Amino acid sequence: MKITDIRATTVTVPLQGIIRHSNGAHWGRFVRTIVEVETDEGITGLGEMGGGGESAELAFRGLKPYLVGHDPFELENLRFAICNPTASLYNNRTQLHAAIEFACLDIIGKKLGVPVYQLLGGKVRDSVPFASYLFFRYANEDGSGEVRTPEQLVAYARALKETHGFTTHKLKGGVFAPEYELECFLALAEAFPEDRLRYDPNGAYSVEDSIWFGKRIEHLKNDYYEDPTWGLNGLRRVREMVRIPTATNTVVVNFEQLAANVLNPAVDVILLDTTFWGGIRPCIKAAGVCETFQLGVSVHSSGELGIQLATMLHLGAVLPNLAFAADAHYHHLQDDIIVGGKMRYENGRIRVPDKPGLGVELDRDKLAEYAELYQRLGGYPYDRDPKRPGWYPLIPNDRFAPTWL
Fold it and tell me: Is 139 in a helix, a strand, or coil?
């Protein structure tokens, strides 16, 4: 079997609101590039990639000479063809490779008539648990949907729990000053005393503010304290002072960083992202290292539609050491581009697809609809806030949003 072509289509799919984070916002929609890899046997594989609110179509088109004529079964050769660590110094292709790997695994599964998890060692669970993944949000044009106050945060978490069954709640913070977000997080803990919690200010705090905050939540049912400050050395200092496991999806995203963390621990839980690590298979390799050295693992979300969600589900299905609920932005979406619409949560979990390959198909009408919407609206800068013109954060940040905005 040989690859004959690659097509990339950029879509933008509406969210339930403008969701805020420490470096800016998702401006009421996700921008994703959908990849289709075609073969000479008529089998097409699907991939997906984000990009901070921008299209990656041109980058994928540039990979066509690397792909045409390649056997999609030869995944290790493909990795070095696309992202040889020396050759790709000037154009790091790790995330592009991830989308191509998704598509090749999809092709292999379809060719063999088996789901991707069978190619990865077989599943150890039939469904993957997810956290609620709470964001502060701006109000919609009709005034609905705002999440700014502790009361609004608790009400939103309660609605998600009732709808989807979440029993783990993650707050994406770093938007407001630490003192205010502590009030919000404690209100969340009080409202759901039986549920598990995690807090992620996205690397916005100084080491000292991270320690101050962490000590004040030590008594809660915390899964972990995610990226309170930036960098391995900063996280190491926090870990020495705060009795909560630390976690990251930002500063351990490759094997050299993982090795550094094993040699001199700063992070207890590694959040594996199928895009950031370059595919599902590198995540499984990393999970094996974590299992050996007794580091925790979870599955990170980078703003997925249904194709990438499928990769997260197949990953979560095969990891015996997945001890934490996965992250997902998925419930913030209004729609999806896969046949059948959005996948459904059951008791806070999503079932792993059982059809051959990734187990999802493109809804061509939805793909066309949201590609046209992208053509009309264009991209947006993920690292900017539409309600705060000219603003950008420092690291550590002291330019927090006012509590009234």
Answer: coil
H or E stretch including 105?
Answer: helix 94-112
Catalogue the active-site residues: 172, 300
Same domain? 42 vs 169: no
Taking the CA atoms of 350, 355, 358 and 360 in sequence, report the sign of the dihedral they define.
negative
Q: Is residue 392 part of a domain?
A: no
* Residues 152 and 226 grouped into a single domain: yes
User: 3-class SS at 168?
Assistant: strand
Q: How far apart are CA 363 and CA 67, in angstroms?
A: 25
Alpha-carbon gap, residue 132 to 250, rounded angstroms: 20
Same domain, 219 and 189: yes
Residues 77 and 168 in one domain: no
What residue has token string 């759901």?
192
If asked whether residues 129 and 180 sit together in one domain, one would say yes
Q: Do both 185 and 64 map to the same domain?
A: no
d(CA 181, CA 105): 42
**240 and 305 together in one domain:** yes
Domain total in the chain? 2
Q: What domain range is 238 assigned to?
A: 118-351
pLDDT tens digit at each of 405 positions of the chain? 999 999 999 999 999 999 999 999 999 999 999 999 999 999 999 999 998 899 999 999 999 999 999 999 999 999 999 999 888 888 889 999 999 999 999 999 999 999 999 999 999 999 999 999 999 999 999 999 999 999 999 999 999 999 999 999 999 999 999 999 999 999 999 999 999 999 999 999 999 999 999 999 999 999 999 999 999 999 999 999 999 999 999 999 999 999 999 999 999 999 999 999 999 999 999 999 999 999 999 999 999 999 999 999 999 999 999 999 999 999 999 999 999 999 999 999 999 999 999 999 999 999 999 999 999 999 999 999 999 999 999 999 999 999 999
Q: Are residues 28 and 172 in the same domain?
A: no
Tokens of 261: 């963390």
Residue 300 lies in a domain: yes
